[in-house]
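User: Reviewer 2 asked us to show a designed sequence for the structure in our supplementary figure. I'm pasting the structure tokens here. Could you produce the per-position amino acids so we can include them in the response letter?
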């Protein structure tokens, strides 16, 4: 067994099959890993006691000590390595258990070893980059349970030194809000006890009274001042989730992070929560609700954490993305190793909210295609969250240039049994306006100056399925699609999503139009010769540029705008 100390990362490959070990070691060495091997879990445990590894790759079925036992043992280590299970055992329940416990990845045999090694390298690099965030989140979560004036100067100075940010900038959730959430998760807790716990925090009680008196929860408009009645109207579980969210909202201030529109972020939170409720109502399946509403209302707030801990870096990323057209999600992943929704899921975990509750939030920005690897319930819950986030963005509008425009696949709606997406967007818009107006003291104008001016634009769709997501989202971006008679339109947007683009050119409407084609795959040459091609997902800035035929419109070298996010 040779130890190569000159390599960048150390990996321990654990497998009783010598051929598999040899293939893995060969591929990993191409990615600059220093490789050790073990033939079973017992041998691996002995080696792990003697040395530190950045990565452990383990089979499941092995003599003496199997891989599941080894993984559980590693997960309990204070400074554990990254863990990848490499197995031929295709068991969804086992996979869910391992991922829920914290294993970083599960890869099934047979394997493309070169791809495996490349993924392993990226995983280890991300974990190393993310170490600083983990440390900061842990310290922040422990400190936010105490009032600022009770935090000892030593720990506070240490935190400010390590994160370059004051604690007041990191979503300080009160202990009362956490207590309310925990009570509402207990079926035996009485409504009176929940109301009494809310009343301990006057600001929290006031926030929930405002929410309970909005037309969304109180269509009768009869003024309600009794907290017990508010709990009943909103719903026990929902009150607990809203207690956490509204308490976090109360701590937000635009002055803290000037490059982030916190008011817009909160409206997206409210809208995503409402969209989740509407989706639950349409599905009629209460078994899928757990954690979706909570994840929906917290989904944008991880940016507050990143923007607070890494203020200078995050502000530079936002500025660069606004100029380049890159999505901020991509830039954050590159800079911090994780997305803002993953960070938010981790912070909720620090508040003792179980990982299975926040599983959809952790994977909210994963590609739809990648969700098929998860067990059916987890996949469906994550898809519902992603759909709620999409509906919220379309309902609220006011897109930032660096935001990602990602459209759900039509087969996802068919699989979920969701219909009339345009109606859900409109209902979410109305409900969000009602709640936000109530929270702003009844003002009828809520940031109307941020709403984009509507521009009419020719539109033609070849998209299959019963819902045209592109047409549904265009109004929130400031464009009103004009259908039918396109003769008066010089520019025509053509929806080619999820269709064979080779056939599109033959079916285009007549007339002397300039075309902009939207597709989610490699376009046929016949399209690139007729106009600009935009590959989705992309950033809001690039999509708007395309709709106006700006920037790259006359540059033949840039006629296909590649996606800024995958």
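Assistant: Here is a per-position design you can include in the supplement:
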């Amino acid at each position: 067994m040779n130890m190569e100390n000159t390599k960048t990362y150390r990996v321990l490959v654990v497998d009783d099959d010598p051929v598999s070990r040899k293939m893995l070691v060969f591929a990993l060495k191409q990615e600059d890993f220093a490789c050790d091997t073990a033939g079973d879990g017992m041998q691996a445990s002995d080696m792990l006691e003697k040395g530190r590894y950045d990565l452990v790759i383990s089979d499941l079925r092995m003599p003496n000590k199997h891989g599941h036992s080894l993984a559980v043992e590693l997960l309990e280590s204070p400074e554990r390595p990254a863990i990848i299970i490499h197995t031929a055992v295709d068991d969804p329940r086992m996979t869910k258990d391992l991922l829920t416990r914290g294993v970083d990845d599960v890869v099934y045999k047979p394997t493309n070893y070169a791809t495996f090694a490349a993924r392993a390298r990226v995983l280890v690099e991300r974990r190393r980059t993310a170490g600083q965030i983990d440390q900061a989140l842990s310290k922040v979560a422990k400190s936010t349970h105490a009032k600022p004036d009770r935090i000892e100067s030593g720990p506070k100075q240490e935190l400010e030194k390590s994160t370059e940010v004051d604690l007041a900038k990191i979503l300080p959730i009160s202990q009362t809000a956490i207590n309310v959430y925990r009570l509402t998760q207990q079926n035996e807790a009485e409504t009176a006890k929940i109301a009494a716990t809310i009343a301990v925090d006057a600001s929290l009680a006031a926030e929930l009274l405002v929410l309970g008196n909005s037309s969304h929860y109180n269509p009768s408009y009869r003024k309600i001042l009794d907290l017990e009645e508010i709990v009943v109207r909103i719903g026990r579980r929902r009150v607990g989730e809203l207690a956490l969210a509204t308490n976090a909202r109360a701590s937000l201030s635009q002055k803290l992070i000037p490059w982030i529109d916190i008011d817009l972020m909160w409206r997206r939170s409210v809208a995503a929560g409402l969209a989740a409720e509407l989706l639950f109502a349409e599905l009629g399946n209460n078994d899928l609700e757990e954690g979706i509403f909570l994840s929906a209302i917290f989904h944008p707030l991880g940016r507050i954490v990143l923007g607070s801990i890494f203020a200078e870096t995050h502000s530079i990323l936002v500025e660069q993305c606004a100029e380049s057209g890159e999505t901020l999600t991509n830039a954050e992943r590159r800079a911090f190793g994780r997305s803002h929704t993953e960070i938010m899921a981790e912070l909720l975990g620090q508040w003792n909210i179980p990982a299975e509750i926040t599983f959809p939030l952790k994977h909210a920005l994963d590609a739809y295609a990648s969700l098929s690897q998860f067990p059916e319930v987890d996949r469906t819950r994550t898809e519902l969250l992603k759909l709620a986030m999409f509906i919220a963005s379309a309902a609220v509008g006011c897109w930032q240039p660096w935001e990602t425009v990602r459209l759900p696949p039509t087969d996802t709606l068919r699989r979920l049994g969701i219909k009339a997406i345009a109606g859900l967007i409109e209902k979410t818009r109305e409900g969000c306006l009602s709640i936000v107006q109530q929270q702003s003291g009844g003002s009828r104008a809520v940031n109307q100056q941020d709403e984009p001016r509507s521009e009419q634009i020719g539109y033609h769709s070849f998209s299959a399925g019963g819902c045209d997501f592109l047409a549904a989202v265009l109004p929130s971006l400031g464009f009103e699609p004009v259908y039918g008679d396109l003769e008066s339109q010089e520019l025509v947007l053509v929806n080619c999503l999820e269709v064979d683009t080779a056939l599109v050119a033959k079916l285009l409407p007549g007339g002397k139009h300039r075309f902009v084609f939207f597709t989610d795959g490699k376009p046929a040459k016949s399209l690139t010769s007729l106009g600009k091609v935009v590959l989705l997902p992309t950033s809001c800035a690039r999509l708007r540029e395309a709709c106006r035929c700006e920037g790259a419109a006359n540059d033949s070298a840039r006629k296909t705008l590649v996606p800024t996010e995958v």
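For the response letter, you might also mention the following. Residues 156 and 167 are 8 Å apart (CA to CA). The longest strand covers residues 455-461.
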